[in-house]
Design a protein that fits this description.
about 500 residues; alpha/beta; Rossmann fold; Helicase, Ruva Protein, domain 3; 3 domains; 5-stranded parallel sheet; 21 helices; about 45% helix; globular
């Protein structure tokens, strides 16, 4: 059963609003005087909608919304903020509130907002039961990431997409995948059946951007021999994605503001307004707040666009996702090739995770594509990477400790079955006999890289001794066969084994 929780220390105002809600919306209305009492109610009662005061000056209502979202993301939050306080409005929306009310609260407005919020709650519950879910470990619509920042982003995409009306501002550095986030928002929204229309504001000359966005009527200018539909009209009922909105000139910003405020526009040369039912998702790599302070971007448009801001973390802040992204790109660029990348060695991964990635995911994708062409059918090592990617790794140190890895005694030998006719020995760098003594380490080395490299060698040595039989190799290493198979898959050794002639078993 749906229920509403009102939180306000103004007893008279709270009780009056509760009475109106019970009268116009047929559901229980619970009351609490403080955020602490509200959390106690939420622990013991099922609540669909939270309507809370901001509780200035400490703005405890913001923390209440955050706590509620952490405990139960299905609860829809609405916060009453002082009329005209734009900073408070932005803050509560960033915290996860779906709507806001101006205070003093207008009861008619509150009833409308409460009804819409409950509808949103019902839609959310319905989608969770029957609709697709974002697969947070594998990403969504091509967005890959297991880092905490990406998990937070995926959760925001789920919540924001379902609304389908509010404008969204996606912020992130170039190459982070802003258009992919916009496509995910569209795909998960009620507008998914209509067009997703992208427009890069920085890629079109200023004198053409207006007609591209709004269209034009016949005779509007020299060469306008017939009317042309603009991107806004083409996106009717769907989503318009305005990439690099920070590059839009002020004159055009004013016209876009009208679309957001009045839900209508006029084509170039036209006099009759056209209604626009479109959700606008904007993106930029610029700091729009700084642009507003410098007078380069309209403040009113900024607040209209950033009703729900989404921040995409740069790749350097989620380096644990680099192996996942590499695996994904290898699948893409190995597809259809007779020879493809076998994988990335531990020292190569260490070098890439130590790189700053100014070009973010796009730069990583370009690198994998380049290596798929230049190093097809091979295992990429740090030495194979372009010089700038090796800057943070001491390649000489890795080379110096390589004999140490080979010096660790191999498992006790077992009779090896005859190799298949097509098989050839593994590379000598993998199966070389160990020297009698372990040389001391004379330079700093990456411990994790060395351990991973040593594990690779043990696995490959065992497979070499057993002629590629993974069951016998697992017994040789005192591992379960499933454990060995998982390690081979994780380390991407299958391609290397196939290259030297060992069949899958």
């Amino acid at each position: 059963m749906r229920s509403i929780l009102l939180v306000d220390n103004d007893r008279h105002g709270r009780e009056s609003l509760a009475t109106m809600l019970r009268k116009d919306i047929d559901c229980p209305v619970l009351e609490a005087e403080t955020p602490e009492e509200a959390l106690a109610v939420l622990d013991s009662q099922d609540v669909s909608l939270l309507i809370t005061d901001l509780f200035p000056p400490k703005n405890l209502g913001v923390e209440l919304v955050k706590s509620v979202l952490r405990k139960n993301p299905e609860v829809v939050s609405v916060v009453a903020v002082p009329a005209g306080d734009r900073e408070a409005m932005v803050r509560i929306l960033q915290a996860g509130a779906l709507f806001y009310l101006n205070k003093p609260v207008d009861f008619d407005e509150a009833i409308i907002v409460a009804a819409r919020s409950l509808e949103h709650h019902d839609l959310q519950i319905h989608k969770e039961k029957r609709g697709p879910k974002i697969r947070k470990t594998e990403g969504f619509h091509g967005i890959i990431g297991q880092a905490s920042g990406m998990q937070t982003l995926f959760g925001m995409i789920e919540r924001v997409a379902e609304d389908g009306e509010s404008t969204v501002l996606i912020q992130g550095e170039s190459g982070t995948g802003k258009e992919m986030v916009a496509k995910a928002l569209h795909a998960f929204s009620p507008r998914a059946g209509k067009n997703f229309v992208p427009l890069n504001c920085a890629a079109i000359p200023d004198d053409l951007l207006e007609s591209e966005l709004f269209g034009y009527v016949k005779g509007a200018f020299t060469g306008a021999n017939q009317s042309k539909q603009g991107r806004i009209q083409y996106a009717e009922g769907g989503t318009l994605f305005l990439d690099e909105i920070g590059d839009m000139k002020p004159a055009l910003q004013a016209k876009l503001l009208r679309v957001l405020q009045e839900k209508e526009f006029e084509p170039v040369g036209g006099v009759k307004p056209i209604q626009a039912d479109v959700r606008i998702v904007a993106a930029t790599h610029r700091h729009l707040e700084d642009a507003v302070k410098k007078g380069l971007f309209r403040e009113d448009l900024y607040y209209r666009l950033s009703v729900v801001p989404l921040q995409i973390p740069p790749l350097r802040e989620r380096k644990e996702d680099i192996p996942l992204l590499i695996e994904k790109f290898m699948q893409v660029y190995n597809r259809g090739r007779k020879r493809g990348l076998a994988g990335f060695a531990g020292d190569a991964l260490a070098a890439l995770q130590n790189y700053a990635w100014p070009g973010n995911v796009r730069e990583l994708e370009n690198l994998v594509q380049r290596l798929a062409i230049l190093h097809a059918d091979g295992l990429v090592t740090a030495a194979d990477l372009p010089e700038k990617y090796r800057a943070g790794v001491d390649i000489s140190a890795v080379a110096e400790v390589a004999p140490v890895l080979r010096s660790v005694p191999a498992p006790a030998p077992v009779p090896a079955p005859e190799l298949p006719a097509a098989a050839v020995p593994l590379p000598t760098s993998v199966t070389a006999d160990a020297p009698a003594e372990v040389a001391p380490l004379e330079s700093p080395a990456d411990f994790n890289t060395l351990v991973s490299d040593f594990e690779d060698r043990l696995i490959l040595q065992a497979l070499s001794r057993t002629g590629g039989n993974k069951k016998e190799a697992a017994e040789l290493l005192n591992l379960k066969r499933t454990t060995l198979l998982e390690k081979i898959k994780k380390k991407q050794l299958d391609s290397l084994l196939a290259r030297v002639g060992y069949k899958k078993d």
